[in-house]
């Protein structure tokens, strides 16, 4: 049965999207308004500890490309979807768009140098790491990753100064089980406490 939307409800929804509740006044959409300044935003977000991944792909000339990334999120288990947010100024961005696929390499503890390389603008980042190829020919980092996931891009969404790549996980593995991940917190590299250390602390009552 077809349901007709209540016009008042529809108008309220549109006003929320448009960011204006004054009839006839056009204001920027809510998501385009300025909000806090960039530095405030970045320092708030730096208080959220995150794992770190290196996202790898190939450019139109077949050259491996990649960047260090923490804006990565599990989205759905069925179908298996992840998202990756990439700055519009990233030099890896055109390659990601061209390849329509990428590998998310979750990086292990003790590999901050590799993360620094992929967080730089170096021209040949892959000359400084051990890398291999997936079945479909995308580069990945079997030594530095504790797990990796190869994705096909199913959607690109522009959001502010970033592009969100929604990827369906086609294959991957936990290459180095039992290895701790590297973490990034307040602009510094770290390592989470090992499970055994946590258990010892709990047993000691601290
Ligand atoms: C811990 C950490 C996390 C980062 N996360 C992201 C991210 O999620 N998205 C992004 O676009 N850049 C991120 N960056 C910055 C890029 O790694 C950096 O701009 C890099 O130079 C991009 O390389 P490219 O221009 O060759 O693609 C991060 C950097 C660090 C150190």
Short description:
This protein has a domain at 50-183: Electron Transport, Fmn-binding Protein, Chain A (Pnp Oxidase, Chain A).
Which secondary structure elements does this structure contain, and how are they paired or packed?
Elements: H1 7-18, H2 38-45, E1 50-51, E2 53-58, E3 64-69, E4 72-76, E5 81-87, H3 93-99, E6 101-107, H4 112-118, E7 132-133, E8 139-140, E9 145-159, E10 162-173, E11 183-185, E12 188-190, H5 195-203
Antiparallel strand pairs: 1-11, 2-3, 2-6, 4-5, 5-10, 6-9, 7-8, 9-10, 11-12
Flavin mononucleotide (FMN) binds next to strand 3 and strand 5.
The ligands bound in this entry are: flavin mononucleotide
The percentage helix is 10-25%
The CATH architecture of the domain at 50-183 = Roll
Task: Give the number of helices.
Answer: 5
Note the run of SSEs as H and E: HHEEEEEHEHEEEEEEH
Secondary structural class: alpha+beta
Q: In percent terms, what proportion of residues is strand?
A: 25-35%
- Stated plainly, the CATH topology of the domain at 50-183 is called Pnp Oxidase, Chain A
The CATH H-level superfamily of the domain at 50-183 is Electron Transport, Fmn-binding Protein, Chain A
Which regions are unreliable across 5 or more consecutive residues at pLDDT < 50? Answer: 1-5, 7-24
What is the mean pLDDT?
A: 87
Radius of gyration, whole Å? 21 Å
CATH domain class of the domain at 50-183: Mainly Beta
Largest sheet: 7 strands, antiparallel
Measure the end-to-end span. 60 Å
The overall strand count is 12
Provide the spatial order of strands within the biggest beta sheet.
Answer: 3-2-6-9-10-5-4
The gross shape turns out to be: globular
């Amino acid at each position: 049965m077809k349901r007709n939307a209540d016009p008042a409800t529809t108008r309220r929804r549109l006003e929320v999207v448009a960011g204006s509740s004054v009839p006839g006044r056009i204001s920027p959409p809510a998501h385009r308004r300025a909000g806090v300044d960039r530095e405030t935003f970045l320092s708030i977000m730096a208080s959220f500890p995150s794992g770190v991944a290196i996202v790898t792909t190939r450019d139109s000339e077949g050259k491996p490309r990649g960047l260090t990334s923490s804006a990565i999120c599990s989205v759905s288990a069925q179908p298996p979807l992840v998202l990756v947010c990439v700055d519009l100024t990233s030099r890896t961005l055109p390659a990601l768009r061209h390849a329509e696929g990428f590998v998310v390499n979750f990086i292990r503890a003790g590999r901050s140098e590799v993360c620094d390389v992929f967080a730089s603008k170096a021209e040949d980042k892959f000359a400084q790491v051990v890398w291999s190829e997936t079945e479909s020919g995308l580069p990945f980092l079997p030594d530095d990753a504790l797990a990796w996931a190869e994705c096909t891009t199913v959607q690109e969404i522009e959001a502010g100064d970033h592009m969100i790549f929604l990827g369906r996980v086609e294959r991957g593995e936990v290459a180095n089980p039992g290895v701790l991940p590297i973490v990034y917190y307040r602009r510094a590299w770290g390592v989470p406490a090992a499970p055994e250390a946590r258990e010892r602390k709990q047993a000691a009552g601290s």
